[in-house]
Amino acid sequence: MGDQASFVDGNELAGAFRELFAVDVTTARGTCVSCGRSGEIAQTHVYHGPGLVARCAGCEAVLVRLVRGTGRAWLDLRGVTCLEFGLPEPV
Questions:
Q1: Which of the ends of the chain has fewer CB neighbours closer than 10 A, N or C?
Q2: Global pTM?
């Protein structure tokens, strides 16, 4: 994973996640299962392949996998111990 030019930051996930969640999950704070680093999902390193793979900016462990097919999506968050995100204030 040493090729720094092959990834973009975690903001690349915003559009894909926006379709699945009512809030912008890239602003959520996640904790890496592997190294314990905590930070915003927007700080991850995102790689394109058959889907999107977000890796920890600290240890490069896989945090999130998102694959889309016709009319469905698969989201794997097993690399994140938790997600903490703010919710809009009730009106």
A1: C
A2: 0.78
Q: Which amino acid is at 12?
A: E
Triad 23, 28, 9: Cα angle to 5°: 100
Number of Cβ within 10 Å of residue 31's Cβ equals 17
Q: Where are the domains of the chain?
A: 4-84
Q: Which two tokens stand for residue 41?
A: 């999902």
Cα 72-10-70 angle, rounded to 5 deg: 15
CA separation for the pair 58, 20 (Å, rounded): 26
Q: How far apart are the first and last CA of the chain?
A: 45
> Residues 27-81: pLDDT tens digits?
999 999 999 999 999 999 999 999 999 999 999 999 999 999 999 999 999 999 9
